[in-house]
Amino acid sequence: MIDNFLNQLANLNEFRGFFADLITSFIPVFLGVWLSLRVALKKFVTEKWWERKAQAYESVISALYSSFRYFDEELEANMGGREIGEELKEELDQQYKSGDRDLTQARTIGALHLSKDALSRLQTFSQELKNASETQHFDEYLHDTHSAYTNCTREMIEIAKRDLGIE
């Protein structure tokens, strides 16, 4: 009976040793996997956020350019003393309207991803367009609007580069 008890005790000690070895092997593996997953997830989230920021800036700049083309062609024609053909004028008008809608949408949706500098610049741009629309002469309106689009597009590109860490 004592021999039986001692055998069981020896088996229990072997089991405890096995269990202790299992735990000490499992903990470093678990921690390694957990840390790897955590780092990978953080990198994934950071990359996705960067992609969304880049898309927001791209949408704003693309919309600015679509609308800009109308004023660019109008100003060029006006300075050259010529008229824009009806077909081109219709195409530019459609691009302007589409660009204006896209810009409004990009400003609203992109507000989550755009920097304060970008949002501030777009607010200034809106004020510049409002001021341009209040001028009395069409030539001055074209020039002021063209300048507002040109400057805003150029500055938004610089803000985007800075915000996205691109040089």
Parts with pLDDT < 50 across at least 5 consecutive residues: none
Order of helices and strands: HHHH
Measured on Cα atoms, how large is the radius of gyration? 32 Å
Residue share in helices?
over 70%
CATH architectural arrangement of the domain at 49-164: Up-down Bundle
Total strands: the figure is 0
Largest beta-sheet characterization: none
* Global mean pLDDT: 82
What percentage of amino acids are in beta strands?
under 5%
Organism: Pseudohalocynthiibacter aestuariivivens
Keywords: Membrane, Transmembrane, Transmembrane helix
Protein name: DUF4760 domain-containing protein
Transmembrane segments: 18-41
Write the layout of secondary structure elements.
Blueprint: H1 2-80, H2 86-110, H3 116-133, H4 138-164
Question: How does this structure look, described?
Answer:
The protein is mainly alpha-helical and about 170 residues long. The protein has a domain at about 50-165: Four Helix Bundle (Hemerythrin (Met), subunit A) (Up-down Bundle). Helix content is about 90%, strand content about 0%. It contains 4 helices and no strands. It has helices spanning about 1-80, 85-110, 115-135, 140-165. Helix 1 runs antiparallel to helix 4 and helix 3 runs antiparallel to helix 4 (about 140-165). It is rod-shaped and about 115 Å long. The mean pLDDT is about 80.
Short descriptors:
167 residues; mainly alpha; DUF4760 domain-containing protein; membrane; transmembrane helix
Summarize the structure.
Helix content is about 90%, strand content about 0%. With about 170 residues, it is mostly helical.
